[in-house]
Amino acid sequence: MDESAPITWLIGEINKIVSSGAGAAASAIATTVTPLASICFGIYILLICLNYMRGAETEPVIDFGIRCAGFAVIIGLGLNAANYTSLVIPVVTGVGSDLASAISGGTATAGTLDQLALHYFKIIEQGYESVKDVKFNLGPMIIYVLKAIFVLVGLIPFLAAATVCLIVADVGSVMVAMVGPLYFAFLIFPATRQYFSSWLNTAFSYALMPIFVAVIATMSVGLSKAMFSGSRPLDDISFKAVFLASMGNLTLLFLLKQVGAMASSLSAGGINVSMPGSANTLRNAAQAAKLGAKGIQQGGRTAINAGKAAGRWAENKFNSIRKAG
Q1: Maximum Cα–Cα distance for the chain, whole Å?
Q2: Are residues 142 and 290 in the same domain?
Q3: Quick one: pLDDT at residue 263?
């Protein structure tokens, strides 16, 4: 583990694990889809030619030739395993990170988070060293403990949410890229082109998420620099500055929770992401569990009532047979 860049190391390791099989999976899907797509495409072209022979096709031949050129590009990029792995996958998986790096001033978003985390942890470390060097004094110890609490409460949730957003965006873009050949095959036929649009919207959504996280992380770093600016050492930063910086990070945490919704709305509903562990997610899960428990309880009551009815019917039947005998 790289202690100088822990978040970058974590995201890099996850991306390495996920990306290691992306090319092989995409190649396998392309190899599997290509024969069926070739048969369907051949039938599709034959039907178009038949319409031209019957005079039922209104599209000019030149326009049809342009469409054939488009078909060649789609097949060459999306259904050729080598071209798709070397050309399409890097674009789908890397455009979000490249744009985020451009927005954050040439540094990766994870590096910005590392810079923020190490700066705050250095405040805690130097504060601890200054308190440890002084003999037992209750006042400085209380101030240090409160500073540490505000740093942890304000910083850890923000870093965790930002890291989760980046991991979701990276892993999601790789998963979308892996199934891409199937949707390139859908792009050939008019009746299934809507599915390619959905795939493209989803890829665009995951590309937007690192951009939004980069903007919010840059805001957090700027806020921290503004709060902690001055010539004083880190162990002498005022309690007020630490408190305001922590409140600023908690405010930016609310913006991070909207990243998935913003990316989805700007990409025509490509994804619907609610942050795991958010209040709405937990509330919906609790309501679903409550409804499930009520359903089980009602089902049990129905079974008991059915058993009682069957018992009464059997008793009446037995009494009628006994009286008849």
Answers
A1: 109
A2: no
A3: 84
